[in-house]
Amino acid sequence: MAVLELVNISKHFGAIQAVSDVSLSLERGEVVGLMGDNGAGKSTLVKMMAGNFRPSHGTIRLDGAELVMHRPVEARQHGIEIVYQDLALCDNLTAAANVFLGREIRRGIGPLRILDYKAMYRRAGEIFRELKSETPPRNLVRQMSGGQRQAVAIARTMLSEAKIVLMDEPTAAISVRQVAEVLNLIRELRDRGIAVVLISHRMPDVFTVADRVIVMRRGRKVADKPIAASSPEEVTGLITGAIEQV
C-alpha cells in the first residue's frame, strides 16, 4: 500500500487554475523527483501535501485513509514534513537549538523546568550521525556550509518520525561538494524507509538520486515514470512542451 496517494487533486485561486486533476502515489523508501518550469504547479501541489493549502477538489489518502488537513501542524502530526528552500533556520542559534526549535527538551518540575541543553546536544548529535553528517550540534548555524544547513533542516524532520519529507530545491545555490552531501542525506532518508519528494530544477540531481520522476506543465501532470525508463532529454522536452505527454 502506498504511504501517500493524491487522487484527482485540483487547486484554483479565484480564476487561476494552479493544479488540475493530478493523481500520484508515494511508496515508503522511494525518492520521487518533481520537475517542471516556474509556474507549473509544483509548489502548489507540495503545499497541499504539507497542509498549507486545502485542495479545491480531489482526495488525499495517507496509509489508505482519507486525510483532510487545515493547517501545516496537522500534516506534521501525520508524519509529513517539509523542508523549504529558505530552510527557516535561525542563524544566531546552534544546530541543536534549531533542530529542537519549538520542541525543546526541558527538565525539572512544574514552573521550575529549564531547557536541557545537554540532552538536546546529545540527541541532535545522534541524529546527525544517523544521517552520516559531520554537522557539529554546538556550532552556530551562521558558521555552517550550505550542506550542513540542509542537514540541520533534515534532522529537524526526524524528531517527529516522519513518513514523508518534501524538499523544495535543496541543492539550489550551493557548491558541488555540498550538493553531494545533500544527495547523501536524501539517500539516508530513503534507506530509513522515508518517502522523499524532491522539487528540483537540477536534472543531474534528480537522475542521480530519484527512483521516479514526475513532470508537471501548466498545472497538469504530463509524466510519471521510473528514472530508468526516462532521460534528461525527454524530461526537458516534457517541461518545455516539445513533448506533449508520456
UniProtKB/TrEMBL annotation:
| MF (Gene Ontology) | ATP binding; ATP hydrolysis activity
User: Which ranges carry the ABC transporter domain?
Assistant: 4-243
The EC number(s) this enzyme carries: 3.6.3.17
One matching Pfam family is ABC_tran
Supply the InterPro entries for this chain. Answer: AAA+_ATPase, ABC_carbohydrate_import_ATPase, ABC_transporter-like_ATP-bd, ABC_transporter-like_CS, P-loop_NTPase
Could you tell me which SMART domains the record lists for this protein? Answer: AAA
**SUPFAM superfamilies in alphabetical order:** P-loop containing nucleoside triphosphate hydrolases
User: Coiled-coil segments, which residues?
Assistant: none
* Keyword annotations of the record: ATP-binding, Hydrolase, Nucleotide-binding, Plasmid
Gene3D superfamilies xref list: P-loop containing nucleotide triphosphate hydrolases
CDD domains, from UniProt?
A: ABC_Carb_Monos_I (cd03216)
Family the entry assigns:
Belongs to the ABC transporter superfamily.
Name of the protein: Sugar uptake ABC transporter ATP-binding protein
